[in-house]
Amino acid sequence: MDEVNKEFFRTNQHSLKAKLIDHAALSQSQSWGLSQKRRVDWDWIAGYGAFKYRYPKRFEMALWHNSTLVGLSLGRPTYSGAKLRLDFIEGNPNKPANVSVFQPTFIAMVAYAHALGADELRVMSRINAAVKQYYEKFGLTYIAKGDFLYIKL
Amino acid sequence: MNDKIKEISDQRRKKKTVSMEDAIKRAAQHIRNVGGDKLMEPEGFVSGGDMRKILEEDENDDCHEKRD
């Protein structure tokens, strides 16, 4: 995450910090369930625990904006290691509108893919049309069969 | 055939010479190029499948990474 944080610093995003998912992040994520804007009922504590157990080579990121958790993401490489999947990403439903969760996650995934030698990113299960269109603006291509978007690196 | 092997070899060599810092800078540049840095994220931004399915899977199965 150090290299990713350096990029935030280099581009004057001093309030952003990428970290691994820890107790503090999971604890803050519990408050998301109180928001009317939340679209899922994910239990990050249980979900992260199970994911961590099953996928030791996982991608994970907790994104902080100052002292507020603004995003959590989880993914994993494919078996061959040629692709890196993003399985779950959620923004704090009450985060400031000008704080993006996907952009820093994209950068962190590129960094991890680089370390793995993967040449493709995949975003699984895009939830709805607005999110699909948002991803497509980043150059990702939707594949209906499999319900994912991908981009070659 | 030899040309093809050389091409693949060159591509791999080229990939390895790109540092992580460069890969990150290129990703950030890509975001700026497509205007992603100016996009507003959809409200309640989230994507992914059913998180509960992970919990329902057999905890004794240690071969999940082979299922892609």
Structural write-up:
The complex is a heterodimer of chains A (153) and B (68). Chain A has 153 residues and is an alpha+beta fold. Chain A has a single domain, classed as Gcn5-related N-acetyltransferase (GNAT) (Aminopeptidase, 3-Layer(aba) Sandwich). Helix content of chain A is 33%, strand content 28%. Chain A contains 5 helices and 7 strands, in the order αβααβββαβαββ. Chain A has helices at 2-10, 23-29, 44-54, 102-116, 129-137; strands at residues 16-19, 59-65, 68-77, 83-91, 120-124, 141-143, 148-152. Chain A has a 7-stranded mixed beta sheet with strand order 1-2-3-4-5-7-6, sandwiched between helices. In chain A, strand 6 (141-143) and strand 7 form a beta hairpin. The model of chain A has no long low-confidence stretch (mean pLDDT 94). Chain B is mostly helical. Chain B has 3 helices and 1 strand. Chain B is flat, with a radius of gyration of 20 Å. Classes of the chains: A alpha+beta (153), B mainly alpha (68). At the A-B interface, helix 1, helix 3, strand 3, strand 4 and helix 4 of A face helix 2, strand 1 and helix 3 of B.
